[in-house]
Design brief:
The structure holds two protein chains of two kinds. Chain A is of the alpha/beta class. Chain A has helices spanning 15-28, 43-47, 59-64, 92-98, 108-119, 135-143, 157-171, 194-207, 220-227, 232-235, 240-255, 263-266, and strands at 2-6, 33-37, 76-78, 83-86, 124-128, 146-151, 178-186. By secondary structure, chain B is mainly alpha-helical. Classes of the chains: A alpha/beta, B mainly alpha.
Chain lengths: 267, 221
Amino acid sequence: MKIISVVNQKGGVAKTTTTANLGASLAARGYRTLLIDLDPQANLTLGLGVEWYALKCALHNVLLDPEETPLASVLQPIADLPLYLAPGHLNLADCEVMLMPAADRAYRLRNALETLLETQRFEWVLIDCPPSLGTLTQNGIVASSHLLIPTEPKYYAFAGMDTLNKMIVSLTKGLRFKVELLGVLITMFERGTRLHQTIAQEIRERFGDKVFDTMIYKNVRLSESEVEGKPIIMFDRRASGAQNYEALADEVLRRAPADEPPTLALV
Amino acid sequence: MRVDRLSSLKQKLRRGSDSFDFAALIQGVSTIEGEQPPAREEMPVEPPPAEPPPPAATAPVEEPLAPARDPQPAVEQPVPPAHTVHPPEHAATNGVQPALPLPIEPSAGADRLRLAAEALVARFHAEVRQLAGALARDEMGAAGLRLARVNQTLELLHSFDPGGDLARQFGLAGAPPAGRAWPATAWSLAELAESPLSALLPATADDDYARRLLTIAWRAG
C-alpha cells in the first residue's frame, strides 16, 4: 500500500485535478483507492460531486476528535469504481489553530489512516494537500510514503520546490517520518509553447529521472469534468486529459509497483 | 522566440535553479531509526517519536484509536450452512499455496478439464462483477443472490483445482496470481471478513450489513 501526498505550496498547479484523476485511473485498474481532501477549499470533494457543506462529518472531525469520528465513518464511495473519498470541509481551516497545542498535531492523519487500515484494505491512498506549508500539509507529508509534486512549467517552479525542500528539512528536526519523492509532474503544459518546453527541459535536467515522463497538457475537458463532478475518465475517456492521467497511472505503477495485485483482479 | 532570447532565458533559468536546494526532495528523508521502517501495515498505531516535537509539548502521542470495525467481531457467528465446503489446505485465502505444476497430458480428458476450468473461471469472475455492481447500487437482494453464486462457483473450483494451479497452467485469464489459491467461500461473517470479497463491501458496511447479505445468500444457496 502506497500513500502519496500531492503537494506544492503554490496554488493552481493542478494538485486537486491530479489527485482526483490519478486516483480514478488507479481505481479503474482494480486498485482500491482512497482520496483524502486535506484542503479547506474542499475542491477535490466538490469536484467529485460531494457537497461538503451538506455533510454532518468530514475530515476536520477526524483530525480534531478521531475517537469520536474515525476516518472510516466519513468515507464516501465515488462512482462505480473502487474509489473512496475522505471529504474535506471549510472547517479544516480551524484545524491549523485548534491543533496547535496538541503534541501529536502532525500525526493525526497518520494515526487515523493506520486505524482505518486495520480493518479496510486500500492499495493506494492519495492526499490532496492545501497550498500552504502549515499543519495540514505536515499531516499529509508525515502520513505519506511518497510525494508527488505537480508544477506548472513556470519560472517560479524552482523557487516553490526549494521552499518545499526547506519545509521537509525543517520537519526532520522534530517529526518521525519517512518519505521519498515519487516524482515531479509537469502540468498545464502547452504544446507548441517554446517557453514551456525550455522550462520543462530545465526541470528535467535538475531533477533527472525524478520527473515523470508523462506530462499533463492543458485540456478544457479536465475543467469541465470537475463541473460535472466526475473524474475525467468517467466524463470523457477519449479526451487528451483522460489519456494523460491514464498514462500517469501506468507510470506511477511502474515507479512504485503495488505491493499486491489489485483487489478486483484478485477475486 | 529568437535564439538569443532563448539562450538568455536558459541562462537565467539555470542561474535560478542553481541557487536553490532540492537535496532532501531528491534524496528522500527518513527520521525513523534503522535502515528500513517496517511496512506501514506492520507499524504500530501509536507512533513513538524518535525525538519529542520541538514545542514545549509534554503529552505523549495520542492513545491508540479504537478501530472503526472489529476485524474479528465478538458477536456470535452464524452457523454456516451444511453444504459449505472448506478443503482444509485452502481454508485461508491469503495462505501462500505452493504452485505445484501438474503434468497435463494432451488428451480428451485434459481438454474437458480445460473447458470446465475455463467455464468456471469465467463464471466466477462474472458473478464477482455482478456482486460488485449490486453492492455498489446498494441492491441487497441481488447482492445476496450473487454472493451465493460466487460461493457455489468457488466450491466447484475448489473441488478440482483448489490451489488454482490448473487455471494457471492452462494460462486462463483470471487465474489466481502465482502463490495464491482461489479464495475460500464466504458463508459466514468470519469467512467474509477474511475473504477478499469483503473489499467489495461499501466502506460504510458494518456487521449488520454483512449479516443481512449473508442471510440472503444462505436462502438463495
